[in-house]
Amino acid sequence: MPRRKKMKIEEAKAGGERPRGQLKYPRLRGMKDILFDEYKYWDLVYKKATELARVYGFKRIETPILERLELYERATGKSTDIVSKEMYSFVDKNGEKVALRPEATPGLVRTYIEHGMLNLPQPVKMFWLGPVFRHDKPQAGRYRQFNQFDLEIFGDATPIADVILILVAYNFFRELQIAVQIQINSIGCKECREQYIEKLLNFYKERGKRAKLCYDCKKRLVKNPLRLLDCKEEVCIKLREDAPQIVDSLCDSCRDHFIKVLEYLDELEIPYNLNPYLVRGLDYYNRTVFEVWPVEEDGEKSRENRAQSALGGGGRYDNLMEYMGGRETPACGFGLGIERTVLLIREKNIPLKKDDEDYIFIAQLGEQARRKAMNLFEEMRRSGFKVRQLFTKDSLKAQLEEADRVGAKYSLILGQKELMDGTILLRDMESGIQEVIDYKKINADMEKRLSEKNKQTKNGENSV
Ligand SMILES: [Zn+2]
Ligand SMILES: [Zn+2]
Fold this sequence. Notes:
There is one protein chain. The protein contains 18 helices and 16 strands. By secondary structure, the chain is of the alpha+beta class. It has 2 domains: 251 residues, Bira Bifunctional Protein, Domain 2 (BirA Bifunctional Protein, domain 2, 2-Layer Sandwich); 89 residues, Rossmann fold. Helix 3 packs across helix 5. The longest helix is centred in the first third of the chain and has 20 residues.
């Protein structure tokens, strides 16, 4: 056998990926396929997200992946990295400028306005699960198409709304056995933030400081001074240590709001860190902003690593609705990354709960038996049994291997002899014991056996 061909076969056996150079149509850079083994974790994460969202009164919603480019330019902000550098935007066949959704909130705000949701009982609480697109530099665990779990509360100005979001985010990770800490800050309202920015500018304008700032921060001084605080460059991190903190400049009502949020977090024993440098990269936030950071087990990591490893974040955006042409509506929301969550669960080897469904496998031998077995399969499925099959195979060995693979508790085997006798062969997949039972009594018999088997195997496992 030629060496190359042999190597290819071995590669295929190992289930490894083929080098991209060899592929005629490889997937796009920064994109990802989710294969069978990984999808188990996605199911788990989606289930947890949906369950928690519903418990806290959020209803599911979906919006188009494609929207007008203007929506994001206005809502997310033209000067943000997301819009200015990372968006997948193009002109469609009608000459309309459109963009693939780079984040969830603008589309959800549009939905609220467009469908007159301010006429619904307030607050309106929605959750959303789906893909977003950013033409970012691909890195480990980061993709250009990735998925988010997103929650929004519209029409609620109270600190409790902020707390509910943080609570769902915290519970989500905790119940998936990922230890996290909430990073939290308040960036005030328009009025008190303006005063703070003045203080901040005065601080950075002092002799010598401005000159030391990195190239980007010099631009930020003019465009978006708050973002001086979350610069990742070492020299800027050093400089900000003595910078005035925004919490000291909050107006009375912003301060009250923030203190209430923190009091509730204390009450609920949610671990948080008051982080004066947390400002978030988007234009629309005000008051509470927060991020969820994994708690590192191997000691302190550099700030850069930490910021890159934020699992999700959000905050309040009370002015966005009006800014987008709607009626003034207080709002807050948060989004978290599904890919990063799945990665952490897999890295930590958290065991998945065994699939303990009561599967019954239906096997057949011979053409006639197959026809009858296919009918039996349909009847049992309609009666509510969890049946499985491999009717495309003739070999009984192959069928029983499949039964093992799906974790069937019993197999029902129909051959020529059973067909003549009006019976079926029942095999207990655990013990291998087989017995002949009356074909007419299959349903009653199976029900009885499954309920007895379930009584024997009740145990609690430390898994998710
Ligand atoms: Zn204020
Ligand atoms: Zn900088």
